[in-house]
Amino acid sequence: MGSAGKLHMLYSCPFCWKVRGLLEHLDIAHEKIQVNPMKAKKTLPSAPEWKKVPVWVDSDDAVFVDSTPIMKHIDKMHNDGKLWKTDDEERRDKWMEWVDLHMSKATIPILYGSLWSALKTTTRVSKLEKFGFISKRLYAWAGFPIMWGIIARKRVKKDGRTPKKLWHDLLDEFTNEFGGKSFFGGESPDLVDFAAFGYVRSISPYPQFSQLEDHSSGMDWYNAVKATLKV
Coil, helix or strand for 173? Predict the structure, then answer.
């Protein structure tokens, strides 16, 4: 079976994790192209106005950008759109927007919300990503005070909750919407589940993931989605 396309990605990008989970669930053969984050603007095969990952290039060399539209396209082309189909489009659209708004913004506070967390995260990122020798060390030691001091600390202060409390509240709100079912999609995960799963999974390579692991309903859902992946 040939490759269905190429996923231009960063290993530490939560938006890339969304697409990766869907591809693994559908068992779609594809090529992962790890982008050097210091050179992404020069190397990504996308429109000039879009220089972020993920970028999906299908087998016909058509280029698709932005994680949620990419997921919808892959589901449509390789799964007859089954994961996006629903009898309640208003609920689906509302919660996809909620996931992309709230869960996406919560990843930075938990990974960079304290100086020590930021140092651990940037050190880990420098090992995961395709940096050059100098860039890797520059990012590991210069990146963490920027992420902590400029971005994460502002978000934590503005929200008022600890990163752990923020994530537990988000998981409460999301899983409470299941109506007693195992997934947002009911008896099986849908595209909203995979979008949310991607954000949570993006935290899993880091020690801070332990702060999510004592949320029982959230982990039950997370592990149930993970069990559907064909990896």
Answer: helix
DSSP string, 87-99: S-HHHHHHHHHHI
Q: Which tokens belong to 202? A: 């993006």
Is the backbone peptide bond immediately before 54 cis, with ω within 30 degrees of 0?
Answer: yes
Strand 63-65 and strand 31-34: the pairing is unpaired
DSSP character at residue 12: T
Delimit the domains of the chain by residue range: 5-79, 89-226
Tens digit of pLDDT for each residue in 8-22?
Answer: 988 888 999 999 999
Q: List pLDDT tens digits, range 108-152.
A: 889 887 766 766 777 776 676 665 655 555 555 555 455 555 666
What CATH superfamily classification does 5-79 receive? Glutaredoxin (3.40.30.10)
Please give the CATH topology (third level) of the domain spanning 89-226.
Glutathione S-transferase Yfyf (Class Pi); Chain A, domain 2 (1.20.1050)
Q: Measuring CA to CA, which residue among 117, 113, 106, 130 is closest to residue 32?
A: 130
